[in-house]
Specification:
By secondary structure, this protein is mainly alpha-helical. It has 6 helices and no strands.
């Protein structure tokens, strides 16, 4: 469902205010593109950013595209992210969003 013009105006106002209130914010999750940020964010639930950055260093090389995550054997992806905790749910969520 497409956002209404009013919702878009509201989103722009919120973004302007956030930029004004927090001008120097930097993301602690190491990423080089939106897909990597999405994956790192999913992995960050109940996990430290430091641990996520350790795991994603190899993960991003192994799975450079969304299609790579989508077609990876679930057990292998779970193994790749196990040290982040809640790895079964995280692997399922990563594959679900990458299939979309």
């Amino acid at each position: 469902m497409a956002a209404t013009p009013e919702a878009k105006r509201h989103a722009r106002r919120v973004l302007r205010q956030l930029a004004k209130d927090y001008p120097d914010v930097e993301c602690a999750l190491v990423h080089s593109n939106p897909l990597e940020l999405l994956i790192a964010t999913i992995l960050s639930a109940q996990c430290t950013d430091e641990r996520v950055n350790l795991v994603t260093r190899d993960l991003f090389r192994k799975y450079p595209a969304a299609a790579d995550y989508a077609r990876a054997p679930l057990k292998q992806l779970e193994s790749d992210i196990k040290s982040t905790g809640f790895f079964r749910n995280k692997a399922k969520n990563i594959q679900a969003c990458c299939r979309q």
